[in-house]
Predict the structure of Thiamine pyrophosphate-dependent dehydrogenase E1 component subunit alpha.
Amino acid sequence: MQIARDILLRSYRSMRTIRDFEERLHVEFATGEIPGFVHLYCGEEASGVGVCAHLSDVDTIASTHRGHGHCIAKGVAVDGMMAEIYGRRTGVCRGKGGSMHIADLSLGMLGANGIVGGGPPLICGAALSHKLLKDNGVAVAFYGDGASNEGTTLESLNLAMVWKLPAVFVCEDNGYGEATASSYAVAGTQKARAAGFGMPYFECDGNDFFAVYEAAGEAIAHARAGNGPAMLHVHLSRWYGHFEGDAMSYRANGEVAELRNDHDCLKNFRKSVTEISLLDESSLDGIDASVRDEIEAAVVAAKAAPLPEPEDLLADVYVSY
Ligand SMILES: Cc1ncc(C[n+]2csc(CCOP(=O)(O)OP(=O)(O)O)c2C)c(N)n1
Ligand SMILES: [Mg+2]
């Protein structure tokens, strides 16, 4: 498969930004300065980036409680996200949304979502808009293996098929819903669920950017061509707890160390592109350095930014038409 150099560079930068953003949040959250809950996407980077590499600003995505990676992959500004997570007035939602409600409608990022299974029905609405407006857009819902059991998700698969919507359902299967293994909680298979609605099904290894890119490309092309929805089942792993502060007593000893050593999508990407000289080490190192600076600057700016004022409270509660 041929992928243009600028897409490769952009995708690596995006994955590296997500990784550094999350690793830094892990450290900062422990200081107690960040309000609310934080769910890290670390380890799952290739999924959001491999999917969003096929999308433009006209396309829409709905995310989950684990949404930072989807936001970054869709192009949301990192400094605005960091400020949002710190609850500052300079945040993308003016500090009133926090980690689980980051949205930027100008980029088609419809929002992270604290409601498990909240994204799939949202993208049915977005996909219906794309279809009626004939803007050639596709709507993508990211949702977890846990969310795949929600009635809202199953209803959305049905509705999207019945209305032949330009929608893609990306099931990010990290093997756990909170502390419950999907081997215990998910009956049957995602493939069978797609088949139950007559929906085309694609599957890939989420630790391999190229596998995600290829499978997502097919699923999105199918939907964009007016053929109706598709499901993409991505097998991946989260490296941190369900939320920051989770002691992860339900995970085997050495499970995460093995993931970091042997299944790191960033390491895999570097190996693949340098082995066949698609990209060289020095351009990747340059991206790493620039991302490090960007994250550092975002944290410094977020900490220095003002909190929302009481008069901000009712702003943006209702849309003004
Ligand atoms: C409707 C609803 N039910 C339950 C919860 C509590 N909850 C938050 S995250 C989560 C697990 C979700 O698992 P999964 O969909 O696999 O996503 P992951 O956390 O693994 O990314 C649950 C049960 C919720 N937020 N919303
Ligand atoms: Mg899960």
About this structure: The chain has twelve helices and seven strands. Residues 17 and 50 are 14 Å apart (CA to CA). The pocket of magnesium ion (ligand 2) is lined by residues 144-146, 174, 176-177 (CB under 6 Å).
